[in-house]
Amino acid sequence: MTEATDGPRWQPVGHGTPREQEEEVHREMRKFYRAGSPPWDTGVTPPELVALVEGDDALPSGRALELGCGTGTNALYLARHGWEVSAVDMVDLAVERARDRAREAGVDVRFEYADATRLDGLDLPGPYDLYFDLGCYCGIPAHRRDAYAEGLTRRAAPGARFLMFGYGFEAFPDPVSGVDADELRDRFADWELVDVTPGTNEQPTAWYTLDFVPRTGRTP
Ligand SMILES: C[S@@+](CC[C@H](N)C(=O)[O-])C[C@H]1O[C@@H](n2cnc3c(N)ncnc32)[C@H](O)[C@@H]1O
How much distance in Å is there from the Cα of 205 to the middle of ligand 1? Predict the structure, then answer.
């Protein structure tokens, strides 16, 4: 998130109260969309998702939920490949662009302007066979991460898969952002971390694959 761009720069977050931390992340994200095309908004679906959808061991298409979908590149990709897709992002500008793209392309995706840590109250019951998160979770303040995990766990179909890309803690000039394998193992108690593949970015990044394996009895 600190990689050089000619546009806005990511300002450190996470020094205020929990509520202020959420507002800071929202403000920083919105700043990038307001300025135009954010540096992460490449319009290219990553090969890791393509492999899951089109590769030798591709998942059968089903119901997918993308968390932090931005302008919708990957939700649209999934829908074009036979998935029934819902996608949420907390920045209104991103969701508006995603909806416009879906309309222009004639592709059916349900884009919701919503917080990925507050899915209750939305009409997103699942059950989901696939969750996809490209750079959202790693920016979520710590006090909201359990709610994120619980929201996904409660809506997971048997055998659900979760593919996440995240920046490591070292990538952010702040005390709260980032993700690593240990954190995911602790927080996603009903999931098994089955793969961690380092990313190719200059910053520390990784692709995490988790499979739904209910253990705690809190889930259906
Ligand atoms: C690094 S961007 C990546 C966007 C998109 N996945 C892509 O690759 O183009 C992270 C996205 O997560 C969204 N986001 C961050 N926290 C969120 C939250 N709590 N709920 C929903 N969206 C969130 C941001 O608004 C932003 O669009």
Answer: 16
Establish if 219 belongs to a structural domain. Answer: no
CATH number, domain of 200, equals 3.40.50.150
Is 134 a pocket residue for ligand 1 (Cβ < 6 Å)? Answer: yes
Q: Note whether 70 and 42 are within 8 A (CB).
A: no
In a domain, 30, yes or no: no
Token reading at 160: 């659900």
Residues across the chain: 220
* pTM (two decimals): 0.94
CA separation for the pair 101, 95 (Å, rounded): 10
Instruction: Give, for ligand 1, the residue of 89, 144, 146, 207 to mutate: max count of ligand atoms closer than 8 Å to Cβ.
Output: 89
195 bridge partner residues: 209
pLDDT in tens, 166-219: 999 998 888 779 999 999 999 999 999 999 999 999 889 999 999 999 887 654
Residue 94 in contact with ligand 1 by CB distance below 6 A: yes
